[in-house]
Amino acid sequence: MRRTQQDRSNSTKAALVAAGRELFAARGYQAVPADEIVRAAGVTRGALYHHYSDKQGLFRAVAEELERELTEEVAAALANTDEPLVAMVTALGVFLDACLREDVRQISLTDAPAVLGWGVWREIEAEYGLGLLVDALGRFMDAGLLVPQPVRALAQLVLSTVMEAARMIAESEDPAATRAEVEQVLGVWFFALLRNTDG
Question: Which spans are transmembrane here (predicted)?
Answer without folding.
Answer: none
